[in-house]
Design goal:
elongated; mainly alpha; two-stranded antiparallel sheet
Length: 68
């Protein structure tokens, strides 16, 4: 009998090194939201609400993707 192991995510815990890696991604996301709000002429919070709630997008790896 053979084991058919599927690839698994590495187990990682929340630590300062990972937080330091994630922070620039979050900052880029907010920069994108800010730029969109300026281009359209609306507040940052309204732009964020439209992107996340009305368009159903969520931020992943500093890119907005459909929230499925």
């Amino acid at each position: 009998m053979e084991s058919d192991e599927s690839p698994r995510r590495l187990s990682m815990s929340r630590n300062s090194e990972l937080i330091d890696k994630v922070l620039p991604c979050v900052q880029r996301l907010w920069e994108i939201i800010r730029e969109m709000s300026e281009e359209v002429g609306i507040s940052i919070s309204l732009c964020h609400s439209i992107v996340t709630q009305d368009l159903g997008m969520r931020g992943v790896a500093a890119k907005f993707v459909p929230n499925c």
